[in-house]
Amino acid sequence: MNGAALITGASSGLGEEFALQLAREKRSLVLVARREDRLREVAERARKAGAGEVTILASDLSRPDAAAEIHAKTSAAGIAVDYLVNNAGFGTRGRFDRLPLEREIEEINLNVGALVALTRLFLPTMIADRRGTIVNVASTAAFQPVPWMATYAATKAFVLSFSEALSSELQGSGITVLALCPGPTRTEFQQVASVENAAVPSFAYMDAATVVREAISAARRGKALKINGVINAIMAESTRFAPRGLVRKIAGAMFRGDS
Predict the structure, then answer these.
(1) What is the count of structural domains for the chain?
(2) pLDDT tens-digit readout, 89-117
(3) SS3 of 232, please?
(4) For position 34, which CATH number holds?
(5) Is 152 considered catalytic here?
(6) pTM, whole model, 2 decimals?
(7) d(CA 97, CA 95)
(8) Catalytic residue among 152, 158, 162, 189, which?
């Protein structure tokens, strides 16, 4: 019998789509995000889609103690989490020395700190039960430095490296750790990161439903890495062979804008 799926950043975008698609598998859900009103809306849609018990936890995961609080609340409620989707995150855009330091630190705390903490807190029970799935949402930005989005790309490079390392450590344990690397996807991310006017061609964008469907399928097959889209996969892999100066120049040209 499946345990619950805990999804961070569940109020919109990929997180919302994970909630709906896992609900169709009749899973119980724990939905985590800052916006409680949006979480309630997603929870209602998930119930209609077939979810079992749906628990919402409004929390700002950039706070250092937030992950421990979530783990304590689920444990106290007797919720067994065997499917963890670390999706919460955001990006900032601009020349690094001109960006607010507090926002950059918040970005690192959320994109990296919360992901590591939640993984560490929920993993031991999965290992004891010899079953579990962890999906860590990285990005195709993880494969190269991205000038004008320096902190964001660096956090996603961490997520990719961390996830692939864990996947190898946990071979034979019954646990799948998937690094999900979508390219441009139509979500609220573009508005928050101020990248609506980035030089990314419209044909490169994917829809959230497709990204999540491919992620769930890849995790089910025990994959350690999923890059969404053939073009994205080719571009991500090509960065290993292209001169790094050229890679930086191209990435920087796409995201510099008016910053």
Answers:
(1) 1
(2) 999 999 999 999 999 999 999 999 999 99
(3) helix
(4) 3.40.50.720
(5) yes
(6) 0.86
(7) 6
(8) 152
